[in-house]
Amino acid sequence: MKDPNSVRLWWLALAAGLIPMLTIHLTFVVSVLEGHVSFCIPYWDSCTSISKTGRQGTSYFIFKGAMLPAALLGLLFWWFNGRWLRQLGVRSAAVVWVPWLGLIASAALAAYTVALGHEGEGFNLMRRIGVVLYLSLTFLCELLISAALREHPVWRADSKWLLGLCQLTLAIGILSVILNGVAPVLYSRTDNAFEWVFALLINVHALMLARLWRKSRFRIRFWVE
C-alpha cells in the first residue's frame, strides 16, 4: 500500500543526470554562436574543452547558474542512493561509502564551477582538483552501486548493463592515461575528446539509475502526520 506521506524521487535522479549533460552542450552551442569557440564535434574533433565552453559571454552565466544547482542535486542523488540500496535490502559497502563519496564529488563540482572563468594560480588549481575529484569519485560511486546490485536477485540483469557501462568508462580512462604516457603529443590533441566522452558516460549512468529508481518505485518519507 502506498504511503501518502512518502514521495517518489526518480525525477531527482533524472535531473541529476540530465542537467549537467544538457548544460555542457548548451554552453557549447552558445559559445559557438557568440564566436568564443569554433564549431566542431568535440567528442571526435577534440577541438575544445568542457571548461572553455563556460568561460566567456552568456555561457559563463548559464554554466554557473545550472552547475551549482546540479552540484546540490548530485549531493542529494548520491545520499538517496544509499537509502535506495537499503530499501532494496542490499548489504554492501556501497550503502555506506556512496553517500560520502558523492558528497565530496558534489563539493568538487561546485568548487570547479566557482573557479571557472577566473584567472590566477589558485583558481587554476581549484579548477583542476575539482574536475578530477568530481569525475573520478562520481565514477567510483557508480561502480560501487553497479557492483552492489550484482548480488541482488531482482536487479542482477540491470547490474550487468550498469557494470558494462562502468567498464567502458574505465577503459576510456585507462586509454587516456596510457596515451598520455606513450604518446603525449597525440594525447594533447585528443584529451578534450576523452573528457567529453567520460562526462557523457557518467551522466548516462545516472540516467540509468533514474530508470531503476522509477522501476523499483523508490520512495522517501519526509514527514509524519
Protein architecture, described:
The protein is built from eight helices and two strands, in the order βααααααααβ. The chain has 225 residues and is an all-alpha fold. 77% of the residues lie in helices and 3% in strands.
Name the features.
225 residues, mainly alpha, 8 helices
What is the structure about, briefly put?
With 225 residues, the chain is mainly alpha-helical. The protein is built from eight helices and two strands. A two-stranded antiparallel sheet has the order 1-2.
Order of strands, main sheet, comes to: 1-2
Q: Using DSSP, what is the number of strands?
A: 2
The fraction of residues assigned to DSSP E strands is under 5%
Span of the ends, CA to CA:
17 Å
Structural topology:
Blueprint: E1 6-8, H1 10-33, H2 42-45, H3 50-53, H4 57-87, H5 94-115, H6 121-149, H7 156-182, H8 184-215, E2 219-221
Antiparallel strand pairs: 1-2
